[in-house]
Automatic annotation (TrEMBL):
The keyword Glycosyltransferase does not apply. SUPFAM superfamilies: Histidine-containing phosphotransfer domain, HPT domain. It comes from Rhodotorula diobovata. GO terms for cellular component: cytoplasm; nucleus. Pfam families: Hpt. One of its GO terms (biological process) is phosphorelay signal transduction system. Residues 16-115 form the HPt domain. One of its GO terms (molecular function) is histidine phosphotransfer kinase activity. Keywords: Kinase, Phosphoprotein, Transferase. InterPro entries: AHP1-5/YPD1, HPT_dom_sf, Sig_transdc_His_kin_Hpt_dom. This is Signal transduction histidine kinase.
């Protein structure tokens, strides 16, 4: 909430929060596309792409203060580099890294859906819907 609150504060003086609303809904669209790319990378066993997509979505999530999604994306980034969720430890095999990514994707999708619901409800409440 701290990061999201700061985002609301730095935007223009629009009471409808159009700036942050646009950012949030652009993020949702971007995240949906990135999840498709992650699934494709998993199907192709492309660990480098998984790492890049995790890194990409981590930054977008962080910008909106979606910390659970951000941390899971960071783990995906590290798993794609054949490391543990914190980017440490000995390198694991490609198969082990892919298994970690597959398992994480289940959790990440759930976290993303929760974030989407929260954002949609926040902006609906702001609008008085």
């Amino acid at each position: 909430m701290d990061v999201f609150g700061q985002l609301l504060e730095i935007q223009d003086d629009d009471e409808e929060h159009e700036f942050s609303k646009t950012l949030a809904f652009d993020y949702i669209t971007q995240a949906d596309a990135t999840f498709e790319e992650i699934e494709e990378a998993l199907a192709n066993k492309d660990l480098d792409a998984l790492s890049r997509k995790g890194h990409f979505l981590k930054g977008s999530s962080a910008a909106l203060g979606l910390q659970r999604v951000q941390h899971s994306c960071e783990a995906m980034q590290h798993f794609g580099k054949r490391r543990d969720a914190h980017g440490e430890g000995p390198e694991v095999s490609d198969d082990e890294a892919l298994a970690r990514c597959r398992a994480l994707l289940v959790r990440l999708k759930k976290e993303q859906e929760e974030a989407r619901t929260w954002l949609e409800e926040f902006f609906a409440a702001e609008k008085g819907e």
